[in-house]
Amino acid sequence: MVKPKVLISRRWPEAVERSMADRFDLTLNEADRPMTVADFRAAFAAFDAVCPTVTDKLGPDAFDLPQARTKVLGNFGVGFSHIDLEGAKRHGMAVTNTPDVLSDCTADIAMTLMLMVARRAGEGERELRAGEWAGWRPTHMIGTKVSGATLGIIGFGRIGQAMAQRAHHGFGMKILVQNRSPIAAEVLARYGARQVGSVEELLPDCDFLSLHCPGGAANLHLINAERLALMRRDAFLINTARGEVVDEAALAAALAEHRIGGAGLDVFEREPQITAALMDCPNLVMLPHLGSATRATREAMGFRVMENVSAFFDGKAPPDRVA
Ligand code: 8YV
Questions:
Q1: Cα of 2 to ligand 1 centre, how many Å?
Q2: Per residue in 289-320, pLDDT tens?
Q3: Ligand 1, CB cutoff 6 Å, lining residues
């Protein structure tokens, strides 16, 4: 049987690339450079399956070709707001993602950011490495206590719940939830959580706010200047979801003017570019989109893509079809 022609857009963990090469007629992006829109149009004409990542901006222009050979887009990642689903649908392409396997590691990174910014870990490390630590004193680099504080979670899917698990059962935090649909009482009870009706209702009650909702047009600038103004002056914002969920310019202004306590970001509006004003904010911790970046999780993500694409070409329903 002729093997389907498959392209993966960035280098993947070696073990997954090897398995993919056994199963498919595989093409790798050896240079591991982000592909352009023109590269994708050419790929859609030449491959049976294309496996993109978050660095691939597959907007309407990427699907602007008369006829595509590609039948399935096996996205490496759970978020798929970088893919124009209408364009994919027009060409009859199925789209799959990789849920579940990255929930723990993404929640771990959200906890990392929350602890780092509250306990001033980034600032402390910078001071020490700069040779500026004058020694212990009772008033040195005083931070904010995390244990027992109130955490607001926007988006209570798999990652939001993994965050609640850690925060409530590990740190004794009180959990408040805002989600577009109602969460079952038994799910909330697992984390001692209470669901509130709106973002506006949530913000004034949080010591920490962690975002776990999808990106895309629906949540563009969900956290904007008006909503930042509803946060407490000593509250912290954590974003491991998607950059576009937060208005970065408004956040930089709120941080610079100390209208909120601080922030921790793993995702940005224009990755890998960072809004210049954020660079000057000491009360901000930034990571280069490391949410799922562990060997175990990146391998699991790759194998999950393989499972989806294999199912598709075996004539079965891919387990994680999103469109
Ligand atoms: C990935 C993520 O590293 O899965 C996602 O949606 O944000 C990260 O875990 C990256 O986006 C993969 O495309």
A1: 31
A2: 999 999 999 999 999 999 999 999 999 999 99
A3: 53-54, 76-79, 102, 291-292
Of 63, 120, 117, nearest in space to 90 by CA: 63
Closest C-alpha to ligand 1, atom 4: 77
Is residue 221 annotated as part of the catalytic site, yes or no?
no
The CATH class for the domain spanning 103-286 reads alpha beta
pTM score: 0.97
For residue 313, how far is its CA from the centre of ligand 1 (angstroms)? 24
41 noted as active-site residue: no
Average pLDDT across the chain, whole number: 98
| CA-proximal residue: ligand 1, atom 5 (nearest) | 77
Q: Which atom of ligand 1 is nearest to the CA of 297?
A: 9
Look up residue 82 and give its amino acid.
Answer: H
Question: Is residue 271 among the annotated active site residues?
Answer: yes
5-101+295-313 and 103-286 share one fold = yes
What are the structural domain ranges in the chain? Answer: 5-101+295-313, 103-286
pLDDT of 1? 81
- Ligand 1 atom at minimum distance from 301 CA: 4
- Provide the pLDDT confidence category of residue 152 given band limits of 50, 70 and 90: very high
**Are β-strands 193-195 and 262-265 bridged in parallel, bridged antiparallel, or unpaired?**
unpaired
Which residue in 196, 279, 286, 297 sits closest to 238, CA to CA? 286
Nearest CA to ligand 1 atom 6: 79
What per-residue string of b and e applies to 77-99 under the rule 16 or more CB within 10 Å gives b?
A: bbbbbbbbbebbeebebbbbbbb
**Among the CATH numbers 3.40.50.720, 3.30.70.370, 3.90.1150.10, 3.50.50.60, which is that of 5-101+295-313?**
3.40.50.720
CA dihedral 136, 142, 143, 149 (to 10 degrees): 110
| Active-site option among 242, 269, 298, 304 | 242
Distance 22 CA to ligand 1 centre (A): 25
DSSP characters for 271-299? TTB--HHHHT-TTEEE-SS-TT-SHHHHH
